[in-house]
Amino acid sequence: MPPAAKAGLVDALAQALDRTRISSAACDRTAYARDLWPRGLIGVAHGDVAPSPPDVVVWPETTAEVAAIVKVAVARGVPVVPFGAGSGVTGATWPTHGGIMLDLKRMNRFVALDGDALTATFECGIVGEHLEHELVRRGYTMGHFPSSIFCSTLGGWLAARSAGQASTRYGKIEDMVQGLEVVTGSGQVVRTGTSTVGPDWNQIFVGSEGTLGVITEATVRIARAPEVQLMRGWEFARPSAGLEAIRRLLQRGLRPAFVRLYDEIDTFIAHLGTSGPWRGRAGRRAPGPDGALDELRRAALSLAIPHVGPLARAALGLFDRVSRSGCLLVLGYEGDRALCTAEEQVGNAELVRAGGRDLGPAPGLRWLEHRYDISYKQSKVFHDGAFVDTMEVATTWEHLLEMYEAVKRAVGRHAMVMAHFSHAYPEGCSIYFTFVGGSSSRREAERIYDACWRDGLHAALGASGTVSHHHGIGLSKAGFMQEHHGELMAMLRALKRVLDPAGIMNPGKLGLP
């Protein structure tokens, strides 16, 4: 944007909100130039720290201010990109066309709570951990615990169809939402609610990633704070056995809160550097290889992590030959003590019948204590000159193992890959792949990274899977939206034209123009 036009935009925005909450300073524009999309972090490692800066950053405090800002943008044909906490991993908040970055974190108020209806209303700029604290001190929980809970907002959860670690019991964010306040792309304020007549307007805006409007307030379903948490670890010989056990558990009608099955590699890596990670009841010897084999497996993985191609495949082949530790299943129930105790007893019997080995509470409690740690370890991979990303896809039980093998094989041609199965439901399950690769050349690293996503998502779609379960689409997966949705993309484009006639709302995301 030319300097004169930028100055005129700032002056126009100053009619909508205080000038101290408007900035075109270089430091602010740099800070809002990207989110945590790992492809962008490859560029950061090579000195490209601000690939796509906005022209202006604004910090509204009310829905009325948001509406006024959007109307200024419509009048001037300037893009608007809603921003939560910047922890997204798909490039969904990259202002690829410049314009106005709309940081909503000052809209962070607790609005209301209805204990009889079990609903609560918040402004959407509230950070997840703060939201949960507001509920906990009143005796409730939202039951929504994404790994990014310390650095993501309610609005970001809604925009990307977030899932929390307890989604098997409480559902994903789209299952929780009861009503929204939204500023559309024309600057109009609309309110949705639960309706049994016609379309569910909540679901029109949930997952829209700011392309149809700005979600400013939400009413969500809550639950009473759990009386008890019962955590446990189980060992299964292979992923197939663990998945069959989970399916039988859920289709029997049990409702565990936490369900996480790690494949062999992810099981081992998740416990590197721990003391007796498999140790369950006191005095029980940890199963699996002895210390010498552990060291051999560590050596194999240390070779594989920073490299791709033949060396990585050879190292992982060595890992497979010495790996006999099986797969760890972490399972936990929470809620009413009597109900959870009964569900755990029934579930334990079902898991034993499915071939599971009971490891006692220790592995589950350890996971609960450290469940947010992994998000803070990924930066070390970039620091060491490699990259790491996660691919969360989902499908029905019928196709789950097929998708697991297909995606692992496709991504494994380019990088080291491991997986865990989480967000499990009676109908199916999500697979959370983690892949690590790298190159000293930025161009080569980006080529490898793009190949992982291209081949991995094609494999997922070929196995009747989704291209995302809870991270959203953004720029990362935009090219797969047409293949995923087919003719329904025409309906999404039509919604875009109605709700955002000027085409200013977060352009280029969700596979939209």
Explain this structure to me?
By secondary structure, this protein is an alpha+beta fold. It folds into three domains: 3-105, Uridine Diphospho-n-acetylenolpyruvylglucosamine Reductase, domain 2 (2-Layer Sandwich), CATH 3.30.43.10; 110-224, 2-Layer Sandwich (Uridine Diphospho-n-acetylenolpyruvylglucosamine Reductase, domain 3), CATH 3.30.465.10; 233-462, FAD-linked oxidase, cap domain/gating helix (Vanillyl-alcohol Oxidase, Chain A, domain 3). Helices cover 39% and strands 20% of the residues. The protein is built from 20 helices and 18 strands. The chain has helices at 3-13, 26-31, 38-45, 63-76, 128-136, 154-160, 167-170, 173-176, 201-205, 239-251, 264-269, 291-304, 310-322, 337-353, 362-369, 378-383, 397-412, 442-462, 481-485, 488-499, and strands at residues 22-23, 56-58, 80-83, 100-103, 110-114, 119-123, 140-141, 177-184, 189-191, 213-221, 223-224, 228-236, 258-262, 327-335, 357-360, 386-396, 416-424, 428-438. Strands 15-12-14-13-17-18-16 form a seven-stranded antiparallel β-sheet, with helices on both faces. A five-stranded antiparallel β-sheet has the order 5-6-10-8-9, sandwiched between helices. A hairpin with a 4-residue loop joins strand 5 (110-114) and strand 6. Helix 10 (239-251) packs across helix 14, helix 12 runs antiparallel to helix 13 (310-322) and helix 17 packs antiparallel against helix 18. The longest helix has 21 residues, at 442-462. The chain is globular and about 70 Å long. The relative contact order is 0.12. The model is unreliable at 273-290 (pLDDT under 50).
